[in-house]
Design goal:
By secondary structure, the chain is of the alpha+beta class. The protein has seven helices and 14 strands.
């Protein structure tokens, strides 16, 4: 029978969250425990709350740690305190609804960790209007024969194109092998509109660096040496790990905001639950002003119209 450790009570602002089995090892390689995970999220509290604020959030749970089963949880786990907030979403493909976690305070994050959540995957829209995204996500996803140096090269081109558009991008490591860049946008378009703009941007990056980038959707058709700019991360109900979310890797890596001038030299493996708290204490939340830099997608939609006139293939609908 597995051993258990006494539960502890964690004070989070004006809440108290009971954490059971705090000594359970969640990350075999590093030996990090459930309590280490709690302490990490407490240390980066303002950052993770800012990343999740009022967004529907899918949870990646590991009830027995990374050595066990991974659960992708849309519905809020049972037993939530009454103060944990949710948003009800409709999923047309199944004609079902789900009440997803909607973070408005750090205690909700810690409660989710108590319920064995490691990763937080928010929507790119907020609960006030889940059908109108306010976040455009650029996902640089390296192919099987790519390396991080290629990600860094392409990130430079992404930065260049964003600057030309007058858009402010906020980069972060994915926590895996890629890089994400977030741009706050006006919630004027539905998910398909934002995805269409994202594809137009991806195509422009591909035009400028054809040896490194592909926008081919089907994995079997891609050149394995190229990086895929995944525009479909902007499709409805597609989520990626939030800024400051821990990832489900044995070394307890974190999807970590970085400055543009750090991109060329950073190593994603350096950002873990043990190193990021000190970085956060020194630098604060590098995404804290994202809401002040709102971009109008109109120029990208004009690029999309241009591509349509030129006979470009329409975007693939991943949910079709």
């Amino acid at each position: 029978m597995a051993s258990t450790s006494p539960a502890v009570e964690i004070e989070v602002d004006d809440r108290v969250v009971r954490v059971s089995n705090p000594d359970r090892v969640y990350f075999p390689e590093s030996g990090a425990t459930k309590r280490d995970l709690v302490d990490y999220y407490l240390a980066v509290g303002p950052g993770i709350v800012n990343a999740l604020w009022e967004r529907p959030c899918m949870l990646h749970r590991f009830p027995t740690g990374l050595a066990g089963e991974k659960v992708h949880q849309k519905r809020l786990p049972r037993g939530a305190p009454e103060w944990v907030e949710t948003v009800r979403l409709h999923f047309p493909r199944w004609d079902r609804t789900a009440d997803e976690l909607c973070v408005t305070e750090l205690a909700s994050v810690i409660w989710a960790v108590q319920m064995s959540t490691v990763e937080f995957h928010p929507w790119n829209s907020r609960r006030e209007d889940p059908e109108r995204p306010d976040e455009w996500r650029i996902d640089l996803d390296p192919g099987p024969e790519s390396d991080f140096a290629q990600v860094q090269r392409v990130a430079g081109v992404v930065h260049e194109v964003l600057d030309e558009l007058g858009a402010v991008g906020f980069p972060k490591t994915s926590g895996g092998s890629g890089l994400h860049v977030y741009v706050r946008v006006r919630p004027d378009h539905d998910h398909k509109g934002v995805r269409r703009a994202a594809l137009a941007f991806a195509r422009e990056v591909e035009r400028r660096t054809p040896d490194d980038v592909t926008t081919t959707w089907w994995r079997k058709d891609r050149d394995p040496t190229k990086l895929f700019v995944d525009y479909n991360q902007n499709a409805r109900d597609h989520t990626i790990a939030a800024a400051y979310s821990v990832r489900g890797f044995p070394d307890a890596r974190v999807s970590t905001p970085v400055r543009w001038d750090e991109v060329d030299d950073c190593d994603p493996h350096d950002f873990t639950i043990f190193t990021v708290p000190a970085r956060f204490a020194a630098l604060g939340d590098l995404h804290d002003r994202i809401d002040d830099e709102v971009f109008d997608l109109s120029p990208l939609l004009e690029w999309a119209d241009r591509d349509d006139r030129a006979g470009a293939e329409p975007p693939v609908d991943p949910d079709a």
